[in-house]
């Protein structure tokens, strides 16, 4: 566990995942980024898939605007869509361009099944359920990369070629968006479930959504390691 705090709901969900959270945030792929030992081909394979992931992830955050009940929820969801499509994806476009992969090729790439499973699971959580179901499924992506970025910023090998990736997530812009997402989710949980939210009848189902999305993150790293 790191010192990054993204709110009370997240802390409950993370601790309710048991070893699953560590399997995600300390995955061999993450260690490869940290030490610089990750093969470039595996990184690029992951990055192309992650570009496609972010396209669908932005769609899911846009569904948050649709399912929101307050203007504050709408604002946070809209800012997150902006951060994804106008900022985070620039990293993918830049690194892939340097490797000779242009953006049209990225957009048209074939999705790996782990990518399809994850992104459509999140979208379905939001379509079938309400705003909280959607947030529980979106939370591991946001806060996991936030934790990884913050940790690796201090621990990564000075020689790692993945410094630009690490900095994207350690950056105060990304961390700032994640802090506001954490506050918004806490307020959304309080509004719908009350202060004893973790004892509410709905909590186990939300915990299950978070745990499933966390397992899908592990599968996404596995897919990256497997390579093209
Ligand atoms: C698979 C995955 N999870 C989370 C993030 C963070 O946005 C990302 N870029 N990719």
Automatic annotation (TrEMBL):
<feature type="domain" description="Thiaminase-2/PQQC">
    <location>
        <begin position="21"/>
        <end position="226"/>
    </location>
</feature>
<dbReference type="InterPro" id="IPR004305">
    <property type="entry name" value="Thiaminase-2/PQQC"/>
</dbReference>
<dbReference type="GO" id="GO:0009229">
    <property type="term" value="P:thiamine diphosphate biosynthetic process"/>
</dbReference>
<keyword id="KW-0784">Thiamine biosynthesis</keyword>
<dbReference type="InterPro" id="IPR016084">
    <property type="entry name" value="Haem_Oase-like_multi-hlx"/>
</dbReference>
<dbReference type="InterPro" id="IPR050967">
    <property type="entry name" value="Thiamine_Salvage_TenA"/>
</dbReference>
<dbReference type="GO" id="GO:0050334">
    <property type="term" value="F:thiaminase activity"/>
</dbReference>
<comment type="function">
    <text>Catalyzes an amino-pyrimidine hydrolysis reaction at the C5' of the pyrimidine moiety of thiamine compounds, a reaction that is part of a thiamine salvage pathway.</text>
</comment>
<dbReference type="GO" id="GO:0005829">
    <property type="term" value="C:cytosol"/>
</dbReference>
<dbReference type="GO" id="GO:0009228">
    <property type="term" value="P:thiamine biosynthetic process"/>
</dbReference>
<comment type="similarity">
    <text>Belongs to the TenA family.</text>
</comment>
<dbReference type="Pfam" id="PF03070">
    <property type="entry name" value="TENA_THI-4"/>
</dbReference>
<keyword id="KW-0378">Hydrolase</keyword>
<comment type="pathway">
    <text>Cofactor biosynthesis; thiamine diphosphate biosynthesis.</text>
</comment>
<dbReference type="InterPro" id="IPR027574">
    <property type="entry name" value="Thiaminase_II"/>
</dbReference>
<protein>
    <recommendedName>
        <fullName>Aminopyrimidine aminohydrolase</fullName>
        <ecNumber>3.5.99.2</ecNumber>
    </recommendedName>
</protein>
